[in-house]
Automatic annotation (TrEMBL):
Residues 12-66 form the HTH cro/C1-type domain. SUPFAM superfamilies: lambda repressor-like DNA-binding domains (SSF47413). It comes from Georgenia alba. The lineage of its organism: Bacteria, Bacillati, Actinomycetota, Actinomycetes, Micrococcales. This is Helix-turn-helix domain-containing protein. CDD domains: HTH_XRE. It comes from the Bacteria.
Length: 276
């Protein structure tokens, strides 16, 4: 989805096709008539701002693109994009810090839509060990950190599996927004290595795990991604919290022992880790 060009009808039709919905499907979800959807898409009816947002909601259009739809229809944008460090985002930051600290000693990161690391917890030290300093400043990027030869890639035992995981996630993003920075990440770290060589998970596994060699021994991690429910701010909608968990008991022991004898670190905006 290129977005940002064409009439509001053209853009809505693109989103409808992307969601693989008929005009009747969209009409039923938006609780309007199929005829009205047709008139809007063909430009024979000028929708109100409320109608644009109703159709966008039914199509699950991201807030950033809802603003573009409103602009195409001749209306002002409705959704702000605030810096995470802005004063009115303090409650969000506090919630994120709580999540990150509660997850220690396991690694956790807060990322923006371009995979730039905004906040971390102390467990991320495991993912930073031995990484080239250039990949950590001015801001780490989880794709680069994982797949760059100067990052974790040489230490990841199942690098093909991990790369294919990033391939799937980046492809989904690019299907909705051909963002140049995400495109660059895909073209640099994924496209040259697409070979379909990733093996299927072992029969006894319930999730795919990343195997990572640490200075002590190999650990196995899987992750979950958490987002905010019903956000009304673009920044907030595009924030993701990735929480890493031990995939076996030995890894859990290694991560727990890494925290032994010291107070776990807090978190800082900008991907920094506060010392104990």
């Amino acid at each position: 989805m290129a977005g940002g060009t064409g009439s509001v009808g053209d853009l809505l039709r693109e989103w409808r096709h992307h969601r693989q919905l008929s005009q009747l499907d969209l009409a039923l979800q938006a609780e309007v008539s199929a005829r009205h959807v047709s008139l809007v898409e063909t430009g024979k009816s000028r929708p109100s701002a409320e109608m644009v947002l109703r159709l966008a909601s039914a199509l699950d259009v991201p807030l950033r693109h809802r603003n573009r739809l409103l602009l195409a229809a001749g209306f002002a944008p409705r959704y702000q994009e605030r810096d995470l460090e802005a004063p009115d985002m303090s409650s969000v930051r506090e919630a994120l810090v709580t999540i990150l600290r509660a997850h220690e000693p396991y690694p956790a990161v807060v990322m923006d839509r371009r995979w730039n690391v905004l906040m971390t917890n102390a467990g991320v030290e495991l993912l930073q060990d031995g990484v080239d300093a250039d990949l950590l400043h001015p801001r780490a990027n989880l794709v680069r950190l994982s797949l760059d030869p100067r990052g974790l890639a040489p230490r990841i035992g199942n690098i093909a599996d991990v790369r294919n995981m990033f391939r799937a996630r980046l492809s989904r993003q690019l299907a909705e927004d051909a963002d140049p920075e995400i495109t660059d990440l895909y073209d640099t770290y994924v496209a040259p290595h697409v070979d379909g060589s990733a093996a299927a998970p072992a029969g006894g596994e319930v999730v795919g795990a990343m195997t990572l060699q640490t200075p002590e021994q190999e650990v196995r991690l899987f992750s979950t991604v958490t987002t905010f429910c019903t956000p009304q701010d673009i920044t907030l909608q595009e924030i993701a919290v990735e929480l890493f968990y031990p995939a076996d008991g030995r890894t859990a022991q290694v991560l727990a022992s890494g925290a032994g004898g010291r107070e776990m670190a807090g978190t800082l905006p900008g991907g920094g880790v506060a010392g104990p």
